[in-house]
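Lecture notes, continued. The same structure-token format from the folding unit now serves as the input rather than the output. Read the line below as a description of shape only.
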């Protein structure tokens, strides 16, 4: 009987969140629902609007597509997060692991490509000739595929190291004593290090713009402010969750019991994870207000729809 029961537990896993108050669970589920709907629509629109730039042989938009794909991938898992919070869905164990690891992969892809885009922006200002090599189609394809494979491999290995928990079909309390050291290292690599690099490259880009007489003063200020907003947005959306993960890992490495840490910090972790999910809508907002080409295509689409729906 015990073996049969265990096989049933392995085949289907209930998404549940019994450690969170019901009102808070529905609040978080509402956030996931809104982010899912708006994020899916906004990123699909951005992908459509930016595609003409991707077709160019040399364009940074090819790297932006990776941010959009990561956001769309994470969006797909948010309905499962809603189910996790309101106790209403069962998944096969393989699907459970997929839903659990995808948000981590998406967040790491997003952080990595934001830094990469800053590096390429710096090259564009400081070494214009090398910029064209970085943005050539084959270089972009190779770099993108390589980074996706590396990050997916790291995230899957990290998942395999952690002990299996049938209740974790969506990121909840992901730090286990057996994987605390790995989680600490990866949190620093994909959370703190990107923030430091963004600040450094923002400063280098701003200084290079100030030393470039060919760039008008107004445009220099505009580019610096836009990039600073990205740094601030990254800090607000990624910083709190990274801080909680680092703190959790350190507590476990200091031999605090997992039960004690869970009771104290599970709610904070869930709130920070929900805050981090807002990054799904960050790229569409940024490119709508910063890229005239993207803004014109999207507003032109809505104008065309308004004209077609207006009775003659």
């Amino acid at each position: 009987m015990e073996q049969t029961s265990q096989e049933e537990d392995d085949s289907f896993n209930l998404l549940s969140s019994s450690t969170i108050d019901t009102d808070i669970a529905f609040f978080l589920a509402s956030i996931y629902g809104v982010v899912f709907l708006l994020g899916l629509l906004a990123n699909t629109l951005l992908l459509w609007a930016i595609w003409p730039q991707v077709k160019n042989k040399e364009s940074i938009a090819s790297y932006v597509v990776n941010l959009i794909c990561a956001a769309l991938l994470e969006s797909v898992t948010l309905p499962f997060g809603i189910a996790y919070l309101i106790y209403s869905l069962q998944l096969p164990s393989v699907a459970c692991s997929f839903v659990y690891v995808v948000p981590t992969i998406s967040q790491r892809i997003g952080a990595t490509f934001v830094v990469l885009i800053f590096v390429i922006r710096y090259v564009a200002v400081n070494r214009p000739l090398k910029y064209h090599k970085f943005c050539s189609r084959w270089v972009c394809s190779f770099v993108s595929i390589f980074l996706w494979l590396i990050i997916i491999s790291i995230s899957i290995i990290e998942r395999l190291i952690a002990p299996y928990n049938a209740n974790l079909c969506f990121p909840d309390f992901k730090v286990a004593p057996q994987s605390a050291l790995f989680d600490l290292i990866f949190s620093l690599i994909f959370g703190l290090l990107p923030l430091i690099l963004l600040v450094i490259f923002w400063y280098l880009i701003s200084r290079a713009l100030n030393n470039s007489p060919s760039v008008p003063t107004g445009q220099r200020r505009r580019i610096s402010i836009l990039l600073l907003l990205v740094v601030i947005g990254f800090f607000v959306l990624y910083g709190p969750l990274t801080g909680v993960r680092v703190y959790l890992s350190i507590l476990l490495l200091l031999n605090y019991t997992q039960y004690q840490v869970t009771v104290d910090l599970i709610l904070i972790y869930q709130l920070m994870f929900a805050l981090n999910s807002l990054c799904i809508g960050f790229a569409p907002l940024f490119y709508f207000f910063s890229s005239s080409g993207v803004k014109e295509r999207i507003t032109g689409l809505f104008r065309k729809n308004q004209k077609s729906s207006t009775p003659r």
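Point for the exam: Residues 16-295 form a domain with the Rhopdopsin 7-helix transmembrane proteins fold (CATH 1.20.1070.10).
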